[in-house]
Amino acid sequence: QKEVEQNSGPLSVPEGAIASLNCTYSDRGSQSFFWYRQYSGKSPELIMFIYSNGDKEDGRFTAQLNKASQYVSLLIRDSQPSDSATYLCAVLMDTGRRALTFGSGTRLQVQP
Amino acid sequence: GAGVSQTPSNKVTEKGKYVELRCDPISGHTALYWYRQSLGQGPEFLIYFQGTGAADDSGLPNDRFFAVRPEGSVSTLKIQRTERGDSAVYLCASSLTGTSGRGNEQFFGPGTRLTVL
User: Fold this and answer.
1) B65–A contact, CB cutoff 8 A
2) With an 8 Å Cβ cutoff, are A98 and B33 in contact?
């Protein structure tokens, strides 16, 4: 079992729809969770972070964390073609290490 | 500049050669991280600096890889006797602090694409 798992996709949604991206993690003690957006040929860009159970909203983005289920998700409302990218879930695990553990990413395609 | 910068953006070298990759973190960030990313994969951790010292080098794949951060700012990743399997994008990130919670968000530079022929 991978430490951080994501569906590789592609996830295809029409413009204006809600895109839902999911991530599960293996370390129950993990405390910090991050979503990065990566356009093809570019480096990861931090778009959301969440540390507490529940929802965190920032503009069109909502991060949801459920520690009991070891599940974190990212919702993108009113999806735009410019949202088409790979979304990486990253977890700071409860090992004392400061290194992020990344999933392999989910590729999102927003169809105009 | 305001963000993390990395040089060179691209490096092509021959098998067996030595390469140095440079990272300049966001001003004021005390923590610096090196990752590498292969096609279709998420970044994989290599080494983490808190200030001048390597606080965690457990991700370095072998002793051909070494990194320094002598003045607590700029860092250099050094790879000796490069192999074709070292080809990847090498990413540097920095964070305000190295502690958990607020301030530990990591911001990435543009990366260096290393190709070993």
Assistant:
1) no
2) yes
Contact: A100, B43; criterion CB under 8 Å: yes
> Which pLDDT score, from 0 to 100, does residue B1 have?
54
Positive/negative CA dihedral, A85, A90, B78, B23: positive
A98·B48 Cβ contact <8 A: yes
* C-alpha span between B71 and A56 (Å, rounded): 37
| Contact with chain B for residue A44, Cβ under 8 A | yes
Please give the Cα distance from A26 to A78 (Å, whole number): 31
* pLDDT tens digit sequence for A31-77: 899 999 999 999 999 999 999 899 999 999 999 999 999 999 999 99
pLDDT band for A2, please (50, 70, 90 cuts): confident
d(CA A42, CA B9): 11
B79 touches chain A (CB under 8 A): no
User: A101 and B45 in contact by Cβ < 8 A?
Assistant: yes
Q: Which letter does DSSP use for residue B76 in this model?
A: E
Tens digits of residue pLDDT in B45-71: 999 999 898 989 999 999 999 999 999
**Rounded to the nearest 5 degrees, what angle is found at the Cα of B88, between the Cα atoms of B87 and B92?**
135
pLDDT tens per residue across span A21-44: 999 999 988 889 999 999 999 999
For residue B55, which residues of chain A lie inside 8 Å, CB to CB? 98
Q: Are residues A76 and A106 in contact, defined by beta-carbon separation less than 8 angstroms? A: no
